[in-house]
């Protein structure tokens, strides 16, 4: 009897929702919002690849991706050296940022006293809100001269860009990793300690492996920010189109290439198309990173 009454009440509520004008209006608003969002994404994708096609057709996809010669005045468009430069800076930023960010997240989640946590958490949020051009100016005035005086060279280099970008990804890695570690059930830690593990062993052998999907997600999100960063990199990477032989050499990244040359290219030219094709390659990299995040979250579930 009670079950029948509950079913009848549920049906009445559903009927009311279907007939309520406000509910119908909001449903339409939500559908329109979703359609606009999907249309915007598809429009951007279509624009990028349609405008990039002339460069791929003129230069050739393989030559465009793997050639090391970028001389628009001579009709030579190869972004291989920029892909290498982007990879070097990305790897350097991860080498610097990931260990610091991960260990800071563990400290904040399991070791940090509450008074200190109340200071560190807002500082992490502030670090995330600093504009990239401020990071670039800091790198230009502090890190670049320091590298030049102590290690040689001009200072504008892979090392300088890696240090700045390593600092920039810290808030992402710290916040996401900390939340992942805190989300691990407390029984994991208690069970490990009950079996004789020390606090450190219980954290790093039990809780951290349980939170590995969230930690990996934070690293991949940081990777996405490093690859897509423009202003800070342009100011300190040196912008030299060449294969680096040392971390003290300057390089040009994919994002820097677009922002440096887009302002003076002729509209509709192959040069403009080549720059948009560079953005298309960068877009594919970001898409791959997004798919990796989705796969990690799916595996975690």
TrEMBL record:
It comes from Candidatus Borkfalkia avistercoris. This is Phosphate transport system permease protein. One of its GO terms (cellular component) is plasma membrane. The keyword Transmembrane helix applies. Keywords: Cell membrane, Membrane, Phosphate transport, Transmembrane, Transmembrane helix, Transport. CDD domains: TM_PBP2. Part of the binding-protein-dependent transport system for phosphate; probably responsible for the translocation of the substrate across the membrane. It is found in: Cell membrane. One of its GO terms (molecular function) is phosphate transmembrane transporter activity.
